[in-house]
Description:
Elements: H1 5-23, H2 32-45, E1 49-54, E2 58-64, E3 73-79, H3 106-123, E4 129-135, H4 143-149, H5 152-155, E5 160-168, E6 175-176, E7 180-183, E8 185-194, E9 198-199, H6 209-227, E10 234-243, E11 250-251, E12 254-263, H7 266-286, E13 290-295, E14 303-305, H8 307-321, H9 337-343, E15 346-354, H10 371-385
Parallel strand pairs: 3-4, 3-5, 5-15
Antiparallel strand pairs: 1-2, 2-4, 6-15, 7-14, 8-12, 8-13, 9-11, 10-12
Helix pairs in contact: 1-3, 1-10, 2-3, 3-10, 6-7, 8-10
Amino acid sequence: MPVKNRFAELSAEITAWRRDFHTHPELRFEETRTAGLVAKRLRGFGCDEVVEGFGKTGVVAVIRGRGQGSGHTIGFRADMDALPIREATGLPYASQNAGKMHACGHDGHTSMLLGAAQYLAETRNFDGTVVLCFQPAEEGGGGAKAMLAEGLMERFAIDEIYGMHNWPGIEAGQFAVLEGPQMSAAEAFRIVVTGKGGHGAMPHLSVDTSLVASHIVVAMQSVVARSVNPLRSAVISLCGLRSNTDIYNVIPDMVTIKGTLRYFDKDVREVMGARMNAIIQHTAEAYGGSAVLEFANDGVPPTVNDVEAARHAAAAAKAVTGRETVEIDPVMPAEDFSEMLEARPGAYVFIGNGDSADLHNPNYNFNDDILPVGCSFFAELAEQRMPLTD
C-alpha cells in the first residue's frame, strides 16, 4: 500500500499506542486516561492549541499550516470510548479492565488520528487549519452532542469535517465512501406492558403480561414487512423482554420489551412510529392489558455524506491506496458523527479491517496493518483540500 513514508517509519510507535489504548479501555465519558495521553502526545507534537475537557472528556487540537491565505479549516474526528463487553481474544495486550473492551476499534481510530497529527504538525504542508476532534462517548452516550453543545464548529471555525471507521469484511486498507446516506438513524425504545399479576396455576384470575408481550413481539414483525415501502430500508428489532419478577409460578403484572428502530427517511420513521403505537395499544387491549411505547431521547439521525465532500474523501483514498474506493450499500448500524454532518458538510469513510471478527464482538481486534493507511488518508485529505501555493 503506497502510504506516506513518515507513517511507515512511525508504524511501530503508532501500533504501540493502539495496543496500550486497547489494554486500558474506558467507557463513555470515563475516558480520562485515554484523553490525558492523547492531549500529552498532541502537545509533544507541537500542536498550536490543545483543549482538554471539551464535551466533558473530549480533546480538541489545532494545527495551522504553513500557509494561511485560504482561511479554510477542516475538522477530523476520532472516537475514543470502549464498550461494556468482556474480551475473549486472549491477546497479550487484551483488556485489563474487566467487562470493558475496545470491541469497535476506537483504539485504532484514535491512534490513526494521533499519527496524522504528528505528521501534520511536523510538515504543515497545507494552506489553512486542521482541527483534530477526539470525541468521547460515541457508543450511545451523546458525545457528539456534547462537543457540539460546547460550540465545536463555531469556536474552531470548522468549515467541513471528516471521520473514519474500520469495517470488517472490506479488504484490509481499502476504503469505501458513499455520496449521500451511508449509515442509518437509530432510536432505542421500550414497551411497558401492564396487566394483573397472579398465581401461575390460576391464569384466569390474571391478565397475563407475558402473553400480551409475546403477541406484541410477533405483531411488530409486520410493521416493516407490511407498512414500509419494500424499496425503502428500515429495521425494527425487539432485543429482549424482562418481567418484574423472577419467580417461576408468578404471572408478572409488568413486562418490559426493549428494542431498536433503524431508518434513513423521516417519512418512513413516521409510518413506523404510527404503526408501532397502534399495534402495541390494540394488541394489549385485546388481551385485557395496556401498553405504552417510550422512545429514548438519545437517538441519532442517519449519517448522510455531502456529495462533494465524499468525492474529496474518495480522491484522498485513491491517492493513498492507488485504487478506487469499493462499492458498498448503505448499512443499518448508526453513528453519532451524523450529528456533526448535520452541523457542517463532510463525509464518513470506511477503511477495511479485513477478515476479522465483527464489530461489538468479544473476539474482535483492530488490524494494526491498516494504521499507516488511515494516518495517510487524513494527512492526504488535508493537503489535497488545502494545497500550498507558491
